[in-house]
Specification:
This protein has 229 residues and is mainly alpha-helical. It has helices at residues 51-59, 79-90, 98-104, 118-126, 146-161, 185-194, 213-228, and strands at residues 2-8, 13-18, 31-36. The longest helix is centred in the last third of the chain and has 16 residues, at 146-161. The chain starts with a strand and ends with a helix. The protein has a three-stranded antiparallel sheet with strand order 2-1-3, with no helix packed on it. It has seven helices and three strands.
Length: 229
């Protein structure tokens, strides 16, 4: 995938700017170039359904592999990992000072001084994208469920692009809609109405099922494309 990148002399790294080659708004000084990025995960072959999704998201520097050679598409995604994906996708500013982090985060299960995801959760919390599983716990290492993912991705879209309209009929075709948690019903309806998420096989939405890394990547790409329409 070809895209425009900016070279940062301080970090000596190229940073994704845009996949559009015309009418690009340059907001920072530096050297720019059109580069072609080629994903090379050994466990995601070109025939895999998520291959093109990962090509684009790695080019945008949003998703990463579990190491340099593998993505582990069937691996599960934690709440902290999905939060970090949203923060990268929306390019949210993250607190860098530990005292600021401590003021923002009041969850007992996030070590502000050492958790790699502390700044991501803080940024998402300040933007209203995430909630804890209780007042004191965020459960960063718990595997994210599909209904939790729906709630977070809908908040992300509405933060940037405005409210999603629903008809109330979005869940009629799903055999397991009664398994939705009451708090998640509206978010799931919005995720279906907007096309941010889809059901799974056999007309099921599987709200309590854990989301794979490939599924969360697809949801992030859906979000980006929807915002760019």
């Amino acid at each position: 995938m070809a895209a425009v990148y900016r070279f940062d002399g301080k970090t000596v790294q190229w940073h994704y700017v845009s996949s559009q080659m015309q009418n690009i708004k340059l907001t920072a000084g530096g050297s720019y170039a059109v580069l072609r990025h080629q994903m090379a995960f050994m466990d995601v072959v070109p025939t895999h359904w998520a291959y093109r999704t990962l090509q684009e998201l790695t080019a945008r520097q949003i998703v990463k592999g579990i190491d340099v050679a593998n993505f582990k598409p069937q691996g599960l995604t934690t709440r902290a990992e999905f939060t970090a994906l949203l923060v990268r996708a929306l390019e949210l500013s993250k607190p860098t000072d530990q005292s600021e982090l401590a003021n923002v985060l009041s969850f007992d299960d996030i070590a502000v001084s050492s958790a790699w995801y502390a700044a991501d959760v803080a940024a998402a919390w300040q933007a209203g994208l995430v909630q804890g599983v209780s007042e004191a716990r965020f459960a960063p290492n718990s595997q994210i469920s599909r209904e939790q993912m729906a709630a977070m991705i809908v908040r992300a879209y509405e933060l940037k692009a405005g409210a999603i309209e629903t008809t109330g009929d979005e869940l009629i075709g799903f055999k397991d809609s009664e398994k939705l948690s009451e708090w998640a019903k509206t978010a799931v309806e919005k995720s279906v109405s907007s096309g941010l998420m889809k059901g799974q096989a056999q007309n099921r939405w599987n709200p309590q099922a854990t989301a794979t890394r490939a599924e969360t990547a697809q949801a992030i790409l859906n979000l980006l494309r929807k915002m760019e329409q």
